[in-house]
Amino acid sequence: MLQFLIKRILHSVPTLIGVSLVAFLLIRLVPGDPVLLLLGERGGSEEAVLEMRQNLGLDRPLWQQYLNFVGNAVTGDLGESIISKRSVWSEFLDRFPATIELSVLALFWSALLGIPLGVLAAVRRGKFLDHLVMSVSLIGYSMPIFWWGLILILFFSVQLGWTPVSGRMSAAFDVEPWSGFLLLDVWVRGQGWEAAWQALRHLFLPALVLGTIPMAAIARMTRSSLVEVLREDYVRTAKAKGLTRRQVVYGHALQNALLPVITVIGLMVGTLLTGAVLTETLFSWPGVGRWLVASVVARDYPVLQGGVFLLAIVIIAVNVGVDVLYTWFNPRLRDKIG
Amino acid sequence: MTAIKRLILCGLVFTGSAAFANKTFVYCSEASPSTFNPQLADDGPTFNASSQMLYNRLVEFETGSTKVIPGLASSWTVSKDGKVYTFNLQKDVQFHATDSFKPTRALTADDVLFSFERPLKKDHPFHQVNGGNYVYFKGMDMHRLIKSIEKLDAHTVRFTLNWAEAPFIANLAMSFAVILSKEYADQLLRAGTPQKLDLEPVGTGPFVLKRYVKDNTIRYESHPTYFRGKAKLDKVVFAITPDANVRAQKLKTGECHLMAEPAPQDIKGLEAHKSINVMSQMGANVGYLAFNTQKPPFNKVEVRQAIAHALNRESYLQVVYQGTATLAKNPIPPTVWGSAKDGKDYEYDIEKAKALLAKVGLAKGFETELWTLPVSRPYNPNGKKMGELMQSDLAKIGIKVKLVTYDWPTYLAKTRVGEHQMAQLGWTTDNGDPDNFLGMLLSCSAVGGGANLARWCDKSFDVMILKAKTSTDIKKRTVDYVRAQELFKKQAPWVTLAHASVYRAMSKNLEGYKISPLGMEEFYPLDLKK
Q1: What pLDDT, on the 0 to 100 scale, is given for residue B520?
Q2: 411-440 in B: which are within 8 Å (CB) of A?
Q3: How far apart are CA B485 and CA A48, in angstroms?
Q4: Which of residues 23-42 of A touch B (CB under 8 A)?
């Protein structure tokens, strides 16, 4: 098992190098010099522009800048933001808990709803309910997140007044960050039920929007996987032995059908983190996604390349974890790897 | 109380937002500040979150105007040659007491010296701290202008300049020119944490920074010993909300009392809302179309005048600005002193335009390029749309226009070196001084610097604005600026298009708010009605 893990981690190294190169080059291919952007209409003398470029290390050739970035990244130094002058690491860590809190909740509800819907559709295959679930999930899967979010804000927040429009916490509550996970911090700081409730209300809409696509994907995957398993010989045998449909589906088929669903959930982490870029911007959610958007607008090179690099590590780590889980749940693979 | 009872109670407040203790004012701001020291910044969101909230300047702009009034300096004198400024400081001005700093003394000349020497002197212990990029200080040429600063006694400071420059006083009222605590800086230096000076700020301003949660909220409490008296608001919260549409929704649901920068298309909806007030004021800005006077045929004044007559600018106000702007007659907006309000303007007249073109042998017109603004700016919300209108206007006098644009930084870079023929741009003043328009954008030296997009260099114009700049007598300066604008109008290096209005939307229970033509947000005078 350990050998498998090491092999899997080593396989990720080329991916990381690729990601670092793409992140590094993409932002530089976007037209717009960060120095000129900083100066705006005012402009500046050639001397001032040159000095600023030197300060930011942007006067060196591209390959040198890249090697510099990779060299420093290996030692854990991702540079500092052009705008805030703080290290990319600490800026990332300040925002990451907010993104995790949102993503976990989104994933939680999407699995909680997606799996039963998929089962329902598989069991009623070809019937009205199947078509209904599959149509809804197709719509969910193709929903433009930004538009969907705005519609929900207009309905839930503005029309009904049930949820706040945006942000992470009502302005009336001042919660001093401890772990960065607000749902935990309200208890640590002794703010109690009302604060926790406010935090949840703020999470509701963004998590709903962010979880929409994963929910649809999970429902579809569960359905197709379960349909396939229900065709297996052992299912027929179980039926022949006189087990009820409930026993067949929940006792025998579902467990096996869920294996590919675990992989999909792992892949969805990538979708969640990219979806977070839009969702966080729309809901003013102070997470990594919004931070990256702001860095693109300001052409904050170190933040963008460092931030994308760190997110890539997170996604790769989650996928390695999912692979391990997968082998763990699948006895055939487990025995093979040992 | 049992857990179940608590849950039920929570359920009861499901639809309501949590009630505020004391007078807590919530401002939906548009972006996160980059620092809490405005000396290191050049963007509005940072200035609003730091300069106006936490600090004071030697002199300040009167709330809602560009008039300079005493700040930390109660009075000042200027030498006859205009090069020596002596400031008398207010006594008993207290700095903030925070968790990490308890001031032992009030403001003195040492604090003023510290605050100006940091950006000025390269060997200052704080010069390089947190990047050491004093964008605005350098942008206003302060590093070359200031020759020396001396402390005459504990409450008197003398600035000596390298040349006489009347806008110097207005520069000192700008957001970057804040006074920091030297006592706090010394304490940080001893502790080996100088970078905290800009992150955990201590100032003399009306509010004290309580907490900043990245990209989320900034919390302030009123400064109990503020030298102008404690603010009526107890607490201020900046709820950082980048999307203008979402900000508008938050204002409607009562999650904030004031929103930054409403989008033009949202204004009607906000005006119609029963609990929202919408205010507007003409901004201290100008949108213009510049001719590259170094390139033919725009080197001929008749061609420039012809185009000025051919553009139906009134129609742009409706289509492009949706009625949120005023026609610009001069480069200096009427909200700034020195504007030639009574001067002549080019009326819309196709026949006159044709005659002018015929005079220089261009009766059949010509082909040219027009560069349209690629981004929405306060002085021009839609450059492309305006370009299309201009294109059709100019077609009427035979000028075939090709519309060209680039991404924003490239657009700025290319226009700065004069690659364009005609280009749209604009300007919002930094300090409300006429020189910040005429000197900054139309002087001969601005051709080299690149900010003079018309690349127009008229020696007699330059003499007039230089004379005005070195005098401290506002009446005499006004006369010179008005004459300079008359010359500008005749020579027409630009077509002045519009002065866009600034809009703010706020809850009806907010009192005392005034829109600043300079785009600053000042919350000290505010109060919340019950």
Answers
A1: 87
A2: 412-413, 416, 425-427
A3: 30
A4: 31-33, 36-42
DSSP strands (E only) in A47-149: none
Cis peptide before A34 (omega within 30 of 0): no
Q: Which residue has the tokens 């390139």?
A: B295
- How far apart are the C-alpha atoms of B259 and B248, rounded to whole Å? 7
Q: DSSP per residue over B280-326, as a string?
A: EEE-SEEEEEEE-TTSTTTTSHHHHHHHHHH--HHHHHHHTTTT-EE
B428 to chain A: closest CA residue:
A41
Residue B402 CA to residue B389 CA, distance in Å, equals 12
Amino acid identity at A58: L
Q: Single out the residue of A147, A168, A46 nearest to residue A97, CA to CA.
A: A168
Residues of chain B with pLDDT > 90: what percent? Answer: 71
Contact A176 B211 (CB under 8 A): yes
Antiparallel, parallel or unpaired: β B285-291 and B422-428: antiparallel
- From chain A, pick out residues whose CB is under 8 angstroms from the CB of B451: 41-43
Does A157 sit within 8 Å of B426, measured CB to CB?
Answer: no
The whole-number pLDDT of residue B5 equals 45
pLDDT averaged over 10-residue windows placed end to end, chain A, 338 residues: 82 88 83 71 69 78 86 86 85 92 93 93 91 90 88 90 88 84 88 89 94 92 92 88 87 86 84 86 90 85 89 88 80 66
Question: How confident is the model over B214-263, as pLDDT tens digits?
Answer: 888 999 999 999 999 999 999 999 999 888 888 999 999 999 999 998 88
Tell which phi-psi region holds residue B42, choosing left (phi > 0), alpha (psi between -120 and 50) or beta: alpha
- The pLDDT of residue B1: 41
> Is the pLDDT at B418 greater than 70, yes or no?
yes
Helix (H, G, I), strand (E, B) or coil at A234: helix
Residue A147 host element (H or E) = helix A145-152
Which chain A residues are Cβ-neighbours of B416 within 8 angstroms?
43
Computed over its alpha carbons, how large is the radius of gyration of chain A?
24
Average confidence (pLDDT) over B135-140: 80
Q: Which residue pairs, CB below 8 angstroms and at least 24 apart, start in A258-261? A: A258/A115, A258/A222, A258/A225, A258/A329, A259/A225, A259/A326, A259/A329, A259/A330, A260/A221, A260/A225, A261/A115, A261/A118, A261/A218, A261/A221, A261/A222, A261/A225
Residue A180 touches partner B, C-beta closer than 8 Å: no
CA-nearest of B439, B444, B529, B432 to B480 is B439
Sign of CA pseudo-dihedral A122, A127, A130, A134:
positive
Q: What is the pLDDT of residues B258-283, one digit of tens each?
A: 999 888 778 889 999 999 999 998 88
Q: Can you tell me whether residue B346 is helix, strand or coil?
A: coil
Burial class from Cβ neighbours inside 10 Å (0-12, 13-18, 19+) for residue A270 reads middle
Beta strand B24-29 with B235-240 is parallel
Which positions 37-56 of B are in contact with A (Cβ < 8 Å)? 40, 42
Q: Residue A194 has what pLDDT?
A: 87
Task: Please answer yes or no on whether A286 and B240 come within 8 Å at the CB atom.
Answer: yes
Instruction: State which residue of chain B sits closest to A159, comparing Cα positions.
Output: B253
Q: Cβ contacts of residue A306 below 8 Å, gap of 6+? A: A73, A78, A79, A88, A89, A92
Q: Please spell the DSSP secondary structure of A87-100, one letter per residue.
A: BHHHHHHHHHHHHH
CA A180 to chain centre: 17
Top-confidence residue, B321 or B204: B204
Say whether residue A89 is in contact with chain B using an 8 A CB cutoff: no
Q: What is the ipTM of this complex?
A: 0.77
pTM of the model: 0.83
The per-residue pLDDT for A299 is 81
* pLDDT value at residue B16: 41
